[in-house]
Design a protein that fits this description.
Lyase_8_central_dom; alpha+beta; 15 helices; 6-stranded antiparallel sheet; Lyase_8; about 25% strand; single chain; about 775 residues; lyase activity
Length: about 775
């Protein structure tokens, strides 16, 4: 089983420590007595092993988890004459070290779980102790050098080692604990800095991880100074707070949380859907293990942690899964689909709710209950396949199930679905939530990278930041988790305008040359978003707008120009219908075959998906095809690589053809998620396109509200602007934003009245002006 950076225990068990064998000079960590160090160790064991709350779901999970742990144990050799596992060779800088510790962790925690397959077996304990020594001597000790990815030595292996040690701590002497923790001391002795390059100050998720590792390691070895260093690292006491993981940055991009709720890692990648949750998980773990001790976080800091769930993460959760545009390169991981990381968020939220009180506890519990109730594609309380959908990463399996049932037993009311339109200017992301469906966009700019493709991951990611329109529908909750990324045509992602032909080489984190990406929020149900698009090679450019309403999204494109000579296409839809998927496609009331060229259709409808209305004349190619790919095609990372198993999925493509070398081509269509045939036909008259040019794209809604994106100074209907702006105009108010994030202000003239709207340090935020 491939072990990835965060979810190595998809196939591991996690369980509660059982009765210990008494031995002299062995520290007693069995119960959280008054000693704060014992309480920390016991608390961290609980996060691995749970609270032994019986239920049929726990029993079923333990059976499946134990099956995998036993397979690891049965195939493990501790003779010392070779590797622990034949498929994981030993050696300096081995790409397999993380996997070795992950498998050992699975065995150890299953051994400690009451009712588990390996529970209390003395032979398993003996094998675990021997394996700890062998792997210490050959792979991870204070003398080894960092070879390859620094993360393996400074975070990945330390976490799995600590998970193992806290589970069997009562069976080890103080000297043994000190020995096995000694490499952690070398690599994470100062959680503020990168061990292999002390000039690098740790930020974001990496800092939070190292803080928790320091706290638990210090507790295991009696090193109280190390515990305090870990606690202080959270707010960066050593650096005067400059790298505090709880600071809200008031600037564009940069690692950490931002004032508008954004979260960035690796400087330019929106990452609420991975690193942000990693950080939240570490903070939840820190609160949990230190609660009731002298090391407990102050209430003010805990309240800031609690608030992150609703502000940064919840807007991007649909049906218990994280939306693709905030998952960075992780969308290519077989073992970390949107639902996997959604489970991790749910567990972190449950752990936080256990320490919260009052309305905060109710809000956190309500969100977790909502995600559990809606997550029917990958049910949270079930782990039928231990290699998939085990809630974690560090808080996995039985703890997640037990904490959830503990919460649900209190008859918590799930949070309601609330209409939301929210723009996160500091990470160039937006989200549109309705009671029936949700949407988001993947965009790149001079601030935010088109994509991230590092460490052998996201190998088909050329266009994920080129204006992809992601739709999340109630009848297709597993759409993006169901082998989507290894099978989808990466050159025809919905919403993008791209060239045919082979893509260029992948970069690591490429920015674009255009700053104009962003939009305006009108209210909870309406907004506009714009993108001044240019292809990575610079040959193709376009102005692209999306106008969001409760019924659907109107998509406009103008100024589409290309010099490469390749065919240029705009993709309306490229829907994963699943294996052997069905569903009739209609065009103007006639059924469409598997491959058709549609001449100027007025509307289309796809069963169980929704409708599409063409708002100008267009040639549309409709193609239904089966596509086959393996996860290894999109992820070859050393510890994350996907399997080579072929997956075949059926796709429905709808593509507007612009031809070769288009000049000032355009498109206009509406996407109506969940619409019926009748609703699709009727909606053709719901909007009026007022402009679709390289200067301005605008739409008039049924109530006369005007939504407009200006790429330069210009006029549409009764609105004129002095420079680039996104504008929403109603009867009595005006909403304006600067998508370029470069202007001090914009002058807007409305109905012969001129207002100067300031934008200094607004970072794409919407400003509202009363016209009364």
């Amino acid at each position: 089983m491939p072990v990835n950076r965060r979810t190595a225990l998809r196939g591991g068990a996690i369980a509660a420590a059982s009765a210990a064998l008494v031995a002299t000079a062995r520290p007693a960590f069995a119960a959280p007595a008054a000693d704060p160090l014992k309480k920390i160790v016991a608390g961290y064991r609980e996060l691995q092993t749970g609270v032994n709350r019986p239920s049929p779901e726990r029993t079923a999970a333990l059976k499946n988890l134990g099956r995998v742990a036993k397979s690891y144990y049965d195939s493990m050799s501790v003779s010392g004459e070779g590797p622990l596992w034949t498929d994981l060779p030993l050696g300096p800088g081995s790409d397999y070290t993380t996997s070795m510790y992950a498998r050992l962790r699975a065995i150890a925690v299953d051994w400690g779980t009451p009712g588990s397959t390996l529970s209390g077996d003395p032979k398993v304990l003996d094998g675990t102790r021997k394996a700890l020594e062998l792997i210490y001597a050959s792979q991870y000790n204070p003398q080894v050098g960092e070879i390859g990815n620094w993360y393996t030595y400074e975070i990945g292996v330390p976490y799995y080692l600590l998970h193992t040690l806290v589970t069997v701590a009562d069976q080890l002497t103080a000297d043994e604990l000190a020995r096995y923790v000694s490499p952690v001391k070398r690599f994470v002795g100062n959680p503020n800095l990168r061990a292999n390059n002390p000039k690098i100050v740790e930020t974001g998720a990496n800092r939070a991880d190292k803080a928790l590792i320091s706290i638990v390691s210090g507790a295991l070895t009696g090193d109280t100074a190390w515990i305090r260093t870990g606690i202080d690292a959270i707010t960066d006491v050593a650096g005067g707070g400059a790298a505090s993981v709880l600071a809200k940055l008031d600037r564009a991009a940069g690692d950490g949380f931002h004032a508008d709720g954004s979260f960035i890692q690796h400087d330019t990648i929106p990452y609420p859907g991975h690193y942000g949750i990693v950080l939240l998980t570490a903070l939840a773990g820190t609160i949990h293990v230190t609660e009731g001790t002298e090391y407990a976080l102050p209430d003010e800091l805990k309240q800031k942690v609690y608030a992150l769930v609703g502000d940064t993460f919840a807007p991007f959760v649909y049906a218990g899964a994280l939306m693709e545009p905030v998952r960075g390169r992780m969308l290519s991981r077989e073992g970390e689909t949107a639902h996997d990381i959604g489970h991790q968020l749910t567990v972190a939220t449950l752990v936080l709710a256990r320490s919260a009180t009052g309305t905060v506890k109710a809000e956190l519990s309500g969100l977790a209950a909502k995600w559990i109730r809606e997550g029917t594609y990958a049910p949270f309380l079930e782990i039928p396949d231990p290699e998939r959908f085990a809630p974690g990463p560090d808080l996995v399996a039985t703890p997640g199930i037990e904490f959830a049932q503990e919460m649900l037993a209190g008859r918590v009311r799930p949070a309601p679905i609330a209409a939301t339109h929210r723009i996160f200017g500091q990470q160039d992301r937006m989200v549109h939530v309705t009671e029936g469906w949700s949407a988001s966009l993947g965009a790149g700019s001079t601030r935010i990278s088109r994509y991230e493709s590092i460490n052998g991951m996201n190998l088909h990611g050329w266009h994920v930041g080129d204006g992809v329109l992601y739709l999340f529908l109630p009848h297709a909750k597993g759409h993006y988790s169901d082998a989507y990324w290894p099978t989808v045509d990466p050159a025809l992602l919905p919403g993008t305008t791209a060239k045919a032909g082979p893509p260029g080489p992948l970069a690591a984190t490429p920015l674009t040359t255009k700053a104009h990406v962003g939009g305006v929020r009108w209210d909870a149900r309406h907004g506009a978003y714009a993108m001044d698009f240019v292809s990575e090679d610079g040959s193709l450019s376009a102005k692209k707008s999306w106008f969001f309403t409760p019924a659907g999204i109107v998509c406009l494109g103008a100024g589409i120009t290309d010099t490469s000579g390749q065919a240029v296409r705009t993709t309306i839809e490229n829907r994963n219908l699943g294996e052997n998927g069905r569903g009739t496609l209609l065009a103007d009331a006639r059924a469409v075959g598997d491959s058709s060229t549609l001449h100027r259709p007025r509307w289309l409808h796809l069963d169980h998906v929704g409708g599409y209305v063409l708002l100008d004349n267009a040639e549309v190619t409709a193609l239904r095809e089966d596509r086959t790919g393996a996860w290894r095609d999109v992820d070859t990372g050393a510890n994350t690589k996907g399997t080579t198993t072929p997956n075949t999925r059926r796709y429905q493509k709808l593509v507007i053809e612009h031809g070769a070398k288009p000049v000032d081509a355009k498109y206009a269509y509406a996407v109506l998620p969940g619409a019926s045939v009748v609703g699709t036909v009727a909606s053709a008259f719901a909007w009026r396109v007022r402009a679709n040019t390289p200067v301005v794209q605008a739409l008039r809604l049924w109530d006369n509200t005007l939504l407009a994106n200006f790429y330069s100074a210009g006029t549409v209907d009764e609105v004129s602007v002095s420079g680039p702006a996104s504008v929403a105009l109603g009867r009595n108010s005006l909403a304006v934003s600067d998508p370029t994030q470069l202007q001090e202000s914009v002058r807007v003239t409305v109905r012969r009245r001129t207002v100067e709207v300031p934008f200094k340090d607004a970072f794409g935020a919407t400003k509202v002006v009363s016209l009364r």
